[in-house]
């Protein structure tokens, strides 16, 4: 029997290779974005401990007001993925135009909130010096609202089509550029004056502008422009916009609820004292760094589930999700070992140039908090991966309602009760926020196991399982000698 050689140009749908092909660039991309914020926090720790104490509360308030727009913008990824699975480049192009109009409107609304930053933090009641830094940081981020939302939407054109390497390269270059500017703007360099926390916020805005220019410019690349013909589909599409709002708004509201709950919690921690606030900021910062690969896997799962749903192959979507769960759980267990036994290693970059006496007190508290991080990380992983899977299919309303119930009952209510009628310790606060994360993880897992997501989609019903998907998403195979060696 003659031998047969098959050259596989693309990974098999539902395979580990397919998942990693999309996930690894998104891991690097998400990592680069998180690294940008971590570098910013390290520089601010070196500059003044009050500034790093202000950065996370102000940053999380920014994400609270941004979240509904960011969530709706990021859900463009699902529309792109499902239209790509249905082989409709014209609808992909129309989707991107509706996203562009949305970015201009939502970014403009964010800018209008900037003058009220100082008023908000005055009501919160943090230390006066920290209030000043918080107001400065938040107002600059709000003024950069348009490029922040637009960068997210432009990225979905590539991630939704599985071209995650493009976003990876753009983000890595943008972050490298930002890291250099961050140091110069915070500490001053040459003609650039020392700006402290204002410089850290300004470089974040510059990084988003750079990302928009790069991703937007790539839409004019000949192979992309000829296939999607953006100039033909630039008009306002009322039906498509309403559908994008119908499915995207719950995702945006979900993020708003979640981030607002965390913003409430983080600002309450500030009432315990400066050391507790700084320690909480750094513990969450370290947690964010560890979860970079899980976030990347979540984006890949959402994209692949969206494609498989319109191809009529939910079984492959389920297989991909379980592969992602296995990878992410194994990784996060490894991270938990680091949290528990090598915390000094994680804190070394922050401690290097920090003010000794101030940081020594904070360091002890951070090491204690990392035990909580190790306890809830497994459940946080379940929430990210299973939540991404069901939202990739279109199950956004359950995500919104479930998150609202959990935030109100398990995060906000305990904060109000403990701070209103008792005098809580930092450990008590971290205990109930850990319970919140655990319940979220189990809830999304059971929703996925229920299987309702398998019959959902966000595109027009007549496009589901349409002809042509096999030629695009089944791996093309070059047969050098055609002679079957088995019935398989």
Automatic annotation (TrEMBL):
Keywords: Antiport, Cell membrane, Ion transport, Membrane, Transmembrane, Transmembrane helix, Transport
InterPro entries linked to this entry: MATE_fam, MATE_MdtK, MdtK-like
Recorded GO CC terms: plasma membrane
Membrane topology: Multi-pass membrane protein
Superkingdom classification of source: Bacteria
Subcellular location: Cell membrane
Protein name as catalogued: Multidrug-efflux transporter
Source organism per UniProt: Planctopirus hydrillae
């Amino acid at each position: 029997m003659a031998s047969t050689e098959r050259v596989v140009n693309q990974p098999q749908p539902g395979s580990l290779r397919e998942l990693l092909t999309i996930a690894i660039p998104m891991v690097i991309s998400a990592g680069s974005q998180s690294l940008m914020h971590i570098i910013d926090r390290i520089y601010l720790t070196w500059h003044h401990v009050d500034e790093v104490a202000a950065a996370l509360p102000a940053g999380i308030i920014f994400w609270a007001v941004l979240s509904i727009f960011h969530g709706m913008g990021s859900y463009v990824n699902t529309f792109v993925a499902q239209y790509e699975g249905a082989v409709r480049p014209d609808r992909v192009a129309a989707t991107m135009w509706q996203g562009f109009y949305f970015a201009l409107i939502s970014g403009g609304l964010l800018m209008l909130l900037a003058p009220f930053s100082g008023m908000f933090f005055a009501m919160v009641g943090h230390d006066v010096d920290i209030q000043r830094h918080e107001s400065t940081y938040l107002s600059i981020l709000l003024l950069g609202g348009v490029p922040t939302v637009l960068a997210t939407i432009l990225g979905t054109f590539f991630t939704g089509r599985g071209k995650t390497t493009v976003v990876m390269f753009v983000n890595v270059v943008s972050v490298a550029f930002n890291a250099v500017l961050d140091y110069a703007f915070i500490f001053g360099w040459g003609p650039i004056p020392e700006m402290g926390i204002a410089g850290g916020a300004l470089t974040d805005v510059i990084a988003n502008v750079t990302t928009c220019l790069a991703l937007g410019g790539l839409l004019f690349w000949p192979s992309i422009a000829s296939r999607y013909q953006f100039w033909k589909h630039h008009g306002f599409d009322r039906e498509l916009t309403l559908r994008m709002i119908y499915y995207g708004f719950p995702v945006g509201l979900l993020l708003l609820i979640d981030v607002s709950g965390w913003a409430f919690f983080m600002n309450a921690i500030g009432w315990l004292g400066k050391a507790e606030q700084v320690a909480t900021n750094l513990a969450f910062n370290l947690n964010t760094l560890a979860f970079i690969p899980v976030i990347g896997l979540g984006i890949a799962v959402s994209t692949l589930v969206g494609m498989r749903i319109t191809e009529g192959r939910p079984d492959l979507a389920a297989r991909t999700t379980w592969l992602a769960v296995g990878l992410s759980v194994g990784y996060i267990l490894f991270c938990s070992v680091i949290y528990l036994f090598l915390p000094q290693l994680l804190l070394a970059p922050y401690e290097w140039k920090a003010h000794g006496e101030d940081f020594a007190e904070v360091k002890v508290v951070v090491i204690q908090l990392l035990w909580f991080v190790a306890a809830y990380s497994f459940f946080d992983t379940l929430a990210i991966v299973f939540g991404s899977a069901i939202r990739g299919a279109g199950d956004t309303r359950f995500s919104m309602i479930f998150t609202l119930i959990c935030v109100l009952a398990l995060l906000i209510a305990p904060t109000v009760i403990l701070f209103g009628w008792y005098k809580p310790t930092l450990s008590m606060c971290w205990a109930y926020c850990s319970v919140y994360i655990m319940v979220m993880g189990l809830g999304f897992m059971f929703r996925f196991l229920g299987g309702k997501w398998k019959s959902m989609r966000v595109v027009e019903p007549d496009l589901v399982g349409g002809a042509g998907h096999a030629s695009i998403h089944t791996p093309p195979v070059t047969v050098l000698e055609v002679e079957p060696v088995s019935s398989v």
